[in-house]
Design brief:
InterPro entries: Redoxin, Thioredoxin-like_sf, Thioredoxin_domain, Thioredoxin_ResA/DsbE_sf. It comes from Nitrosomonas ureae. The chain is of the alpha/beta class. Helices cover about 45% and strands about 15% of the residues. The chain has one domain: Glutaredoxin, CATH 3.40.30.10. The chain has five helices and five strands; from the N terminus they run H-E-H-E-H-E-H-E-E-H.
């Protein structure tokens, strides 16, 4: 029983002290992430998104949960962009043709960029696919979500709506 209590305490401390580091990651990300279009052209700097609530989703064509998440992401963009939400999908495929074929079958209404060097994924310490980061208007990461299950979409939407009201 003592081991379980200690473990719970240690996990709580980890989350308590991990939160500020997420904010620091976004600051580092703007200088470390060299995002491009799928055609390889440079695209915006993450700092340009300050002032908006950002739902940043790392995905790849080989990821089955990513396929399931795209209708949700499209709906978020459509419903909440006028309130200040910006949805951006960051592709991590090795071959750009895989991402393009995926998007031909799964059209999107939100921004798609690529992380060809995988530096952005490293800065954000990506551990699962897909992983989404909910970022407030000040550039602070407020929520990290790994994977995608449709039953979680209402909870995610509520978090986003709350941030949009702040």
């Amino acid at each position: 029983m003592k081991k379980i209590k200690f473990f719970c305490f240690a996990v709580a401390l980890l989350f308590l002290f991990a939160s500020p580091s997420f904010a620091e990651h976004l600051e580092r990300a703007s200088s470390s992430c060299h995002l491009t279009t799928l055609d390889g052209e440079p695209t915006y700097d993450l700092q340009e998104l300050k002032g908006k609530v950002v739902y940043m989703d790392f995905w790849a064509s080989w990821c089955p949960p990513c396929i399931k998440s795209f209708p949700f992401l499209n709906q978020l963009e459509q419903d909440l962009k006028d309130e200040g939400l910006h949805v951006v999908g960051i592709n991590l495929d090795e071959k750009v043709t895989d991402a393009q074929a995926f998007l031909a079958k799964n059209p999107v209404d939100f921004s798609i960029v690529a992380d060809p060097s995988k530096q952005c994924a490293q800065v954000f310490e990506l551990m699962a696919m897909p992983t989404s980061y909910l970022i407030d208007r000040n550039g602070n990461i407020r929520h990290v979500h790994q994977g995608f299950r449709s039953g979680e979409s209402e909870e995610l939407r509520a978090l986003i709506t709350q941030l949009l009201k702040e």
